[in-house]
């Protein structure tokens, strides 16, 4: 067998990908063990039957051949209208390309911003695929710590220093952010985003803004950095229907950015994905046309479950939650137990049959934490959290 490319071989940097505990939990469930899965951001409802009916009608109506690679005109127009309404930034279909999911959007955005050897910055804690996505385009990933003590908000000076340090190793070309944030539930403040924007303008960086949780905001308001002065021409926004419409398996995402960048990404899609099926695009158009009220209904269970987390944790000092201002997760500080997130997660799975993600799966800033996905029904979540707290209290108790 011939040698694989260095780029492909280095995607995981030769180490674990952070999903080992989740995979073990899935094997236990498959074997019939009663595990409560709180390890992955998958809705506990399925895609709405009306969306599936629209998909079925489109497929049966003949929309099974090649579709427009950049997205159907109607879908691009609907995405543009939604983004403009949310952000206040003039957005046309020429600013939009449809992608096969948000992950493909992240890859394509970095392919647009970076050449092999360039430095690409991202914030730690981070969604588990971020550094591998950067390596997959041949760039060098460099993390910037957002400390738990600062509410997981990245500091402007830290970003500036990272951009300068990256320039000594190659060209620093991009910064990837995610707000509302997975895994922490942080919602970046206006001050944080303005600091990010200043660094991007000073260092001439592309800002890649992962906004797939933009409908899941519990405190404050979502602000897209594309709306800040001087940022529309250097920001690539990645969006998706996965979280907003419970359509994770349909793989519908998009990138919004400057027209020239979108045109270049159209050429990339022509030579890679060749677009997504027309019947799925038609279903995505139908889903978006249901409006903000539909999206709020999809988000509402996570708002309700956030309150369950707050109520259960109010009776303990052994577990603390990071500010949960958005997204479908709670980042729990279990450092009072003396264990790492990885060790606590193993104990929780072995002793309580509850699966969470270790904070270390998301970078060094997540050490001593576990991420809980609010993706089971209210009663099971309440039970799981109560048992998690009981384990933490036993471990934290003086010998």
From TrEMBL:
CDD domains per record: AAT_like
Q: Which reaction does it catalyse?
A: L-aspartate + 2-oxoglutarate = oxaloacetate + L-glutamate
EC numbers listed for it are 2.6.1.-
Record-linked InterPro entries:
Aminotransferase_I/II_large (IPR004839), AspAT/PAT-like (IPR050596), NHTrfase_class1_PyrdxlP-BS (IPR004838), PyrdxlP-dep_Trfase (IPR015424), PyrdxlP-dep_Trfase_major (IPR015421), PyrdxlP-dep_Trfase_small (IPR015422)
A Pfam family matched in the record: Aminotran_1_2
Instruction: Please verify whether the record's keywords include Transferase.
Output: yes
Q: Where is the Aminotransferase class I/classII large domain?
A: 34-388
Give the UniProt family note: Belongs to the class-I pyridoxal-phosphate-dependent aminotransferase family.
Name of the molecule in the record: Aminotransferase
């Amino acid at each position: 067998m011939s040698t694989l490319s260095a780029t492909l071989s280095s995607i995981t940097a030769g180490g674990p990908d952070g999903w080992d505990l989740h995979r073990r939990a899935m094997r236990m469930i498959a074997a019939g063990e009663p595990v409560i899965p709180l390890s992955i951001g998958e809705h506990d409802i399925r895609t709405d039957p009306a969306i599936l009916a629209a998909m079925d009608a489109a497929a049966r109506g003949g929309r099974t051949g090649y579709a427009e690679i950049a997205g159907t005109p109607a879908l691009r127009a609907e995405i543009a209208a939604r983004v403009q309404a949310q952000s206040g930034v003039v957005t046309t279909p020429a600013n939009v390309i449809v992608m096969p999911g948000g992950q493909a959007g992240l890859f394509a955005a970095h392919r647009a911003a970076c050449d092999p050897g360039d430095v690409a910055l991202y914030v730690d804690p981070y969604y588990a695929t971020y550094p591998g996505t950067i390596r997959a385009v041949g760039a060098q990933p460099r993390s910037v710590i957002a400390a738990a003590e600062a509410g997981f908000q990245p500091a402007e000076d830290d970003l500036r220093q990272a951009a300068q340090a990256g320039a000594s190793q190659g060209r620093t070309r991009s910064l990837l952010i995610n707000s509302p944030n997975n895994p922490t539930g942080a919602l970046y403040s206006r001050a944080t985003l303005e600091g990010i924007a200043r660094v991007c303008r000073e260092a001439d960086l592309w800002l890649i803004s992962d906004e797939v949780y933009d409908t899941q905001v519990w405190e404050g308001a979502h602000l897209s950095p594309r709306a800040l002065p001087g940022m529309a021409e250097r920001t690539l926004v990645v969006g998706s229907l996965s979280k907003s419409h419970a359509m994770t398996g349909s793989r519908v995402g998009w990138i919004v950015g400057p027209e020239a960048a979108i045109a270049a990404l159209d050429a990339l899609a022509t030579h890679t994905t060749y677009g997504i099926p027309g019947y799925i695009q038609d279903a995505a158009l139908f889903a978006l046309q249901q409006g903000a009220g539909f999206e709020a209904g999809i988000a509402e269970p996570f708002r309700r479950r956030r309150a369950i987390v707050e109520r259960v944790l109010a009776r303990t000092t052994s577990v603390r939650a990071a500010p949960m201002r958005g997204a479908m997760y709670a980042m729990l500080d279990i450092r009072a137990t003396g264990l790492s997130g990885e060790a606590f997660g193993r104990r929780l799975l072995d002793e309580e049959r509850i699966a969470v993600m270790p904070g270390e799966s998301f970078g060094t800033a997540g050490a001593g934490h576990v991420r809980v996905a609010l993706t089971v029904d209210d009663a099971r979540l309440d039970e799981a959290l109560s048992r998690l707290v009981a384990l933490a209290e036993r471990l934290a108790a003086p010998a």
